[in-house]
Amino acid sequence: MADINTIETFLIDNNIGFKELDPTTLYIEDAANSIPGLFIAVNDPIVVVKARVMTLPNAPNIQFFKKLLELNAKDLPHGAYGLDGDDVVLVDTLELNTLDKEELMASIDSISFALVNHYSILKKTITA
Length: 128
Fold this sequence. Notes:
Blueprint (H helix, E strand, L loop, with lengths): L3 H10 L5 E4 L2 E6 L4 E9 L2 E10 L6 H13 L5 E5 L2 E9 L5 H27 L1
Antiparallel strand pairs: 1-2, 2-3, 3-4, 4-6, 5-6
Helix pairs in contact: 2-3
């Protein structure tokens, strides 16, 4: 069964830098691998991969939420947009018991891609 040490090994094997925030949480900010600010938390039986996208706009319009849902449906193979307090976040959950390196990397890649490519799209809906 996988655990936080297994995840650390997967990251090291892929030359991804990380910091251990506590015994169950890692933080990745690795510009060399185009990974901007991801948290990986082990909460047995799941692993949560999460990134803050932006602060929720003061007066979000329907277009903003519509675009979030469209991106969820059409352009996110792993994870989904959601709200965490006043933050828009990207979250993916993986099953710890069956986690392998490819699954973890696919989740990290999907969220990293979305952070880089969707921010400007979402920003435009705020000012529209």
